């Protein structure tokens, strides 16, 4: 019976739950789903991470591939990062094979903004030989299952993968100009100390605030906000694209919750990375 | 709010109905930044984009040079969902409202200029709207001072650029997007000064409409 | 022979396997709840994820609908980070299109499509890490996903690669062996009836050796079948227990 009610009147179904301050999946309004992070899952990539929200409801795998390239003319001594988010048809029943959807493009741009704003990659360290050779990091996040809140999952996967990425040492022969990978020397990490964490919120019926919305909740939401925080409490991304208006108080509430969430996720990723090393 | 450094916006100008073939159009200037917006709608919609319960809003953003890339697509999405919020899309099911934006000149605060141009063009087209929308860009400079409606140079030199869009009824935040690093206190201060400045833009909207209507009569 | 010796004098391969030894297969069905069927398989270092949607009504152009059977829609895709060298396009290149075609033909021959006229079955596979035998792993993963989705099949489709080098037949070749220009077979078969549904050979092979190679391939596919069948039975009994039955 509940299934039929949910199908016919999805909004009313949610409202009934919300009168008891709980969501249909049993979470509190500002509770996030459980996160599982594993790093170094893809052997062929230079760095990789897999993030699952809510037991595989939303799953994103991200692999970083480093390639040697010539630097961009305006930044001769800096490498660059090319993030890309893919939503293949396998990740949700509603998606069809074809060119990247608007959502995938928006997410790709959001990841690019996140990496650039937060400075979580030391672009100076990606330089091999100024003006001649730099590393280009291709950061590809593939969504394997989509059940809402892709922004957080992608951000976590991208940042965890970047923190897992190491680059081989390169030697350039001055006379012949030949580039050689020096496998004897240790691989160097690329990540800087900045560790951005994104947290998303959805607004329902113009006044109730949810954290970490599922796909169903996203469809019902009247607005969504994504906040990315850094370790020192500063913000590096605050994105709200349209939807019902929010007051500065509500935004502040999101920011405060995102700070707490950021600390939790940072702790988790650092723990996973540490357990991989030993 | 001691740290508000530049509290006045650059001069605005707006010309509505500058194109003859579109249902509504407007050019909007903020300082030297100029955007041309054209609105077509409600028009017939492509089957793949059709919604049974509302009009589909389609935004096409054309940069001054080059072809639109991922960044432009993200801007389109942002403007699209902002416009969808203020338009009464439910009145025109199975149709589309197409908004074409052409960047003419960019000397900073481009995104807010785009949204303001959109709103003017939508008003010109006479499509039913829930409320008006206006956008304000702010910058936090290296010393933590807030600059309203920054120029490109100020945007580049600052540590963060924040853009807000407000609705005219509740003055709530419809859209917000940021780049750079800033503290949550700075965010709140930018938001408040932008909100304050939005009143001026709404006043300008009113004046420009009054002027236009007095010309018609 | 140039490069690495594929099979050493002692009769071992570069990764220490015997010629007729498969790589370790680990698989899991029902990894995602959003799809009708899903499966993940690891064959050595080759990791593949498959999801199945359907049977559902035709999406996109109606003209694809077949009046007497289901339309099978496949997509083969390789993540850009799955290979040693970064792949430029995950799908849509010639190799992926060819793989997609082979998948489609393989499963059109195996699914009882006549049971679902005017409907569509989607099979999507994503290679997350490639280390040789990608197509075989994809077929095995797709079979598990189809079983998970409860779509009737004639039999399991078990796929395997076989190589022939220096008078020795080696099964389940990895990427290193693949690059050594050996005669390579990709075989997909229905193990119960011993029927081949897909057979592809690259390079050159004397006809005299063919029967030997095919025997080896049949044996390998039957081995794969044992592993897959075990996994399916384990999964079903696990689900059965979760439902509160003993």
UniProtKB/TrEMBL annotation, chain A:
<dbReference type="InterPro" id="IPR033196">
    <property type="entry name" value="Rrp43"/>
</dbReference>
<dbReference type="InterPro" id="IPR027408">
    <property type="entry name" value="PNPase/RNase_PH_dom_sf"/>
</dbReference>
<dbReference type="Pfam" id="PF01138">
    <property type="entry name" value="RNase_PH"/>
</dbReference>
<keyword id="KW-0694">RNA-binding</keyword>
<feature type="domain" description="Exoribonuclease phosphorolytic">
    <location>
        <begin position="195"/>
        <end position="259"/>
    </location>
</feature>
<keyword id="KW-0539">Nucleus</keyword>
<comment type="similarity">
    <text>Belongs to the RNase PH family.</text>
</comment>
<keyword id="KW-0963">Cytoplasm</keyword>
<keyword id="KW-0698">rRNA processing</keyword>
<dbReference type="Pfam" id="PF03725">
    <property type="entry name" value="RNase_PH_C"/>
</dbReference>
<dbReference type="InterPro" id="IPR020568">
    <property type="entry name" value="Ribosomal_Su5_D2-typ_SF"/>
</dbReference>
<protein>
    <recommendedName>
        <fullName>Ribosomal RNA-processing protein 43</fullName>
    </recommendedName>
</protein>
<keyword id="KW-0271">Exosome</keyword>
<feature type="domain" description="Exoribonuclease phosphorolytic">
    <location>
        <begin position="32"/>
        <end position="168"/>
    </location>
</feature>
<dbReference type="InterPro" id="IPR050590">
    <property type="entry name" value="Exosome_comp_Rrp42_subfam"/>
</dbReference>
From TrEMBL, chain B:
<dbReference type="InterPro" id="IPR027408">
    <property type="entry name" value="PNPase/RNase_PH_dom_sf"/>
</dbReference>
<keyword id="KW-0539">Nucleus</keyword>
<dbReference type="InterPro" id="IPR036345">
    <property type="entry name" value="ExoRNase_PH_dom2_sf"/>
</dbReference>
<keyword id="KW-0271">Exosome</keyword>
<dbReference type="InterPro" id="IPR001247">
    <property type="entry name" value="ExoRNase_PH_dom1"/>
</dbReference>
<dbReference type="InterPro" id="IPR015847">
    <property type="entry name" value="ExoRNase_PH_dom2"/>
</dbReference>
<keyword id="KW-0698">rRNA processing</keyword>
<dbReference type="Pfam" id="PF03725">
    <property type="entry name" value="RNase_PH_C"/>
</dbReference>
<feature type="domain" description="Exoribonuclease phosphorolytic">
    <location>
        <begin position="132"/>
        <end position="195"/>
    </location>
</feature>
<dbReference type="InterPro" id="IPR050080">
    <property type="entry name" value="RNase_PH"/>
</dbReference>
<protein>
    <submittedName>
        <fullName>Exosome complex component RRP46-like isoform X1</fullName>
    </submittedName>
</protein>
<dbReference type="InterPro" id="IPR020568">
    <property type="entry name" value="Ribosomal_Su5_D2-typ_SF"/>
</dbReference>
<dbReference type="Pfam" id="PF01138">
    <property type="entry name" value="RNase_PH"/>
</dbReference>
<comment type="similarity">
    <text>Belongs to the RNase PH family.</text>
</comment>
<feature type="domain" description="Exoribonuclease phosphorolytic">
    <location>
        <begin position="9"/>
        <end position="127"/>
    </location>
</feature>
TrEMBL record, chain C:
<feature type="domain" description="Exoribonuclease phosphorolytic">
    <location>
        <begin position="21"/>
        <end position="152"/>
    </location>
</feature>
<dbReference type="Pfam" id="PF01138">
    <property type="entry name" value="RNase_PH"/>
</dbReference>
<dbReference type="Pfam" id="PF03725">
    <property type="entry name" value="RNase_PH_C"/>
</dbReference>
<feature type="domain" description="Exoribonuclease phosphorolytic">
    <location>
        <begin position="155"/>
        <end position="220"/>
    </location>
</feature>
<protein>
    <submittedName>
        <fullName>Exosome complex component RRP41-like</fullName>
    </submittedName>
</protein>
<dbReference type="InterPro" id="IPR050080">
    <property type="entry name" value="RNase_PH"/>
</dbReference>
<dbReference type="InterPro" id="IPR036345">
    <property type="entry name" value="ExoRNase_PH_dom2_sf"/>
</dbReference>
<dbReference type="InterPro" id="IPR020568">
    <property type="entry name" value="Ribosomal_Su5_D2-typ_SF"/>
</dbReference>
<dbReference type="InterPro" id="IPR015847">
    <property type="entry name" value="ExoRNase_PH_dom2"/>
</dbReference>
<dbReference type="InterPro" id="IPR027408">
    <property type="entry name" value="PNPase/RNase_PH_dom_sf"/>
</dbReference>
<comment type="similarity">
    <text>Belongs to the RNase PH family.</text>
</comment>
<dbReference type="InterPro" id="IPR001247">
    <property type="entry name" value="ExoRNase_PH_dom1"/>
</dbReference>
């Amino acid at each position: 019976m509940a299934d039929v009610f949910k199908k016919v009147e999805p909004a009313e179904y949610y409202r009934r739950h919300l009168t008891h301050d709980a969501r249909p999946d049993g979470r509190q309004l500002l509770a996030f789903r459980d996160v599982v992070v594993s790093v170094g899952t893809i052997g062929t990539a230079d760095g990789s991470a897999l993030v699952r929200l809510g037991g595989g409801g939303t799953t994103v795998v991200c692999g970083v591939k480093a390639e040697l390239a010539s630097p961009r003319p305006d930044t001769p001594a800096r490498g660059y990062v090319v993030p890309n988010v893919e939503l293949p048809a396998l990740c949700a029943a509603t998606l069809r094979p074809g060119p990247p959807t608007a959502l995938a493009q928006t997410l790709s741009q959001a990841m690019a903004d996140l990496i650039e704003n937060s400075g979580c990659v030391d672009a100076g360290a990606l330089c091999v030989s100024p003006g001649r050779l730099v590393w280009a990091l291709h950061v590809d996040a593939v969504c394997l299952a989509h059940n809402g809140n892709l922004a957080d999952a992608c951000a976590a996967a991208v940042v965890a993968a970047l923190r897992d990425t190491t680059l081989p040492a390169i030697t350039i022969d001055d006379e012949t100009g030949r580039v050689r990978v020096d496998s004897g020397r240790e691989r160097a990490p690329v990540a800087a100390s900045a560790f951005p964490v994104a947290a998303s919120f959805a607004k329902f019926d113009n006044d109730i605030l949810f954290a970490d919305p599922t796909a169903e909740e996203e469809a019902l939401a009247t607005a969504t906000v994504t906040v990315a925080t850094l370790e020192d409490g500063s913000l590096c991304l605050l994105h709200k694209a349209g939807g019902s208006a929010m007051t500065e108080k509500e935004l502040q509430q999101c920011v405060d919750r995102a700070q707490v969430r950021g600390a939790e996720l940072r702790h988790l990723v650092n723990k996973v990375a540490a357990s991989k090393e030993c | 709010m001691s740290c508000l450094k530049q509290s006045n916006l650059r001069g605005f100008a707006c010309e509505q109905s500058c194109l003859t073939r579109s249902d509504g159009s407007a050019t909007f200037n903020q300082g030297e930044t100029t955007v041309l917006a054209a609105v077509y709608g409600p028009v017939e919609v492509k089957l793949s984009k059709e919604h049974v319960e509302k009009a589909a809003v389609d935004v096409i953003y054309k940069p001054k040079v080059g072809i639109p890339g991922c960044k432009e697509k993200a801007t389109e999405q942002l403007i699209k969902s902002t416009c969808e919020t203020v338009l009464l899309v439910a009145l025109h099911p199975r149709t589309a409202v197409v908004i074409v934006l052409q960047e003419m000149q960019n000397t900073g605060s481009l995104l807010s200029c785009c949204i303001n141009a959109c709103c003017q063009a939508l008003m010109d087209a006479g499509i039913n709207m829930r409320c008006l929308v206006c956008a304000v860009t702010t910058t936090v400079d290296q010393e933590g001072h807030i600059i309203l409606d920054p120029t490109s140079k100020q945007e580049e030199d600052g540590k963060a650029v924040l853009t807000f869009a407000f609705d005219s009824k509740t003055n709530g935040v419809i859209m917000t997007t940021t780049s750079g690093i800033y503290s949550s206190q700075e965010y709140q201060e930018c938001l408040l000064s932008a909100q304050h400045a939005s009143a001026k833009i709404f006043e300008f909207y009113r004046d420009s409409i009054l002027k236009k209507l007095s010309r018609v009569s | 022979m140039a490069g690495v010796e594929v099979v050493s004098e002692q009769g071992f391969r570069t990764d220490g396997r015997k010629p007729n030894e498969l790589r370790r297969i680990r698989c899991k069905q029902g990894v995602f709840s959003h799809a009708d069927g899903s499966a993940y398989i690891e064959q050595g270092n080759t990791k593949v994820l498959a999801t199945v949607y359907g049977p559902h009504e035709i999406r996109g152009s109606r003209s694809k609908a077949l009046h007497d059977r289901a339309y099978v829609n496949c997509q083969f895709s390789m993540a850009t980070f799955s290979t040693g060298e970064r792949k430029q396009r995950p799908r849509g290149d010639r190799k992926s299109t060819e793989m997609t075609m082979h998948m489609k033909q393989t499963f059109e021959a195996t699914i009882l499509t006549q049971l679902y006229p005017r409907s569509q079955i989607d099979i999507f596979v994503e290679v997350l890490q490639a280390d040789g035998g990608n197509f075989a792993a994809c077929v095995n993963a797709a079979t598990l996903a189809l079983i998970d989705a409860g779509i009737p099949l004639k039999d399991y489709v078990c796929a395997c690669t076989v190589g022939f080098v220096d008078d020795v037949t080696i099964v389940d070749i990895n990427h290193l062996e693949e690059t050594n220009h050996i005669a390579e077979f990709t075989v997909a078969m229905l193990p119960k009836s011993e029927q081949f549904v897909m057979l592809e050979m690259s390079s050159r092979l004397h006809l005299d050796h063919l029967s030997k190679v095919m025997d080896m391939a049949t044996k390998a596919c039957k081995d794969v079948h044992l592993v897959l069948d075990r996994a399916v039975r384990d999964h079903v009994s696990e689900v059965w227990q979760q439902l509160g039955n003993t």
